[in-house]
Specification:
Elements (H helix, E strand, L loop, with lengths): L9 H4 L5 E2 L28 E5 L10 H10 L5 E6 L4 E6 H7 L1 H8 L8 E4 L4 H13 L3 E3 L16 H14 L3 H14 L2 H14 L5 H13 L2 H6 L6 H16 L15 H5 L16 E3 L5
Parallel strand pairs: 3-5, 6-7
Antiparallel strand pairs: 1-2, 2-7, 3-4
Helix pairs in contact: 3-4, 5-6, 6-7, 6-8, 8-9, 9-11
Amino acid sequence: MPNQDGFPSEEELNGGWTEQAPNPESPSLINPCGGEHPQDNGESQSSTSTIAITKRPSQELEDPRQHKKHRLFNSLGDLISLRVGPDVIPFSVHRDVLLSSSPGLAEMCNLLLSPDDRIIFLLNQCPDTIQALCYWMYHDEICISHIIPQRSSSHCDPLETAPGLFVKLYIAGDSYSMPRLRNDAIDALLSRSCTIDLVRLSSYVYVNTKVGSNLRKLFIRVVSHRFDAEDLYEHRHLICDEFLFDLANAAFVDRDQGFNRFRDRMPPQEGFCAAFHSHERGAGRCEMMKRCVVADEERF
């Protein structure tokens, strides 16, 4: 059962997770940027993790990071510049790493007019999202800053929180055909988000996803499992009509199938892979959720 602050319990989550010691060496989108972002120096992002957690086994036959290392070796001088957001902030990514990580961005890359044209404009994206996406391309895990708010509140833009970043990463992964990034964003939401965080983000999610989206399914399942009628009424101003309809539909389906959501329904973390992940045909199911890395920039 979730604990009092709404976070899932360790029994729901860990399934064998162990923390490792810090290793400092180691559809049309609404503009998601609620504030100014520091200028990036154009270099690819380095790993600054201070908290790392063992990961679920890869569903591919080999660790995808090994393939990325080989592609990186073959394209050390071949960089693509991503120009992001209204302020056109630059991020540099090795071409082969980009091509292997994202069919959507690869298609944009292939549309460049000449071999010397190495700039892709992503003006509708948020720099924080693309920074995390670039880190994921190289390290196969989501990294967040330790200074980003972990919880949303009435005084904080929910998109500027850790759950907001996970949502934006999922939507970016959907836009650029990156199913493994979507899976990792789902896992991060399940392991680090409270129910009220999802409720505050629900209108943004419904504007930027389609019917049947796994992200919508996650929101419906979590809120249906943890909210009661009093919660729903209290936070009704945060719930858009389409989300409210989906919640009502889920309640009717449960009733028609004879389910009591508190007694019979599994917690959202149970069966997370079958319910919310996308994998290639024939791939095995994930046994454990994959959590993110937290960066402590002040240590470097």
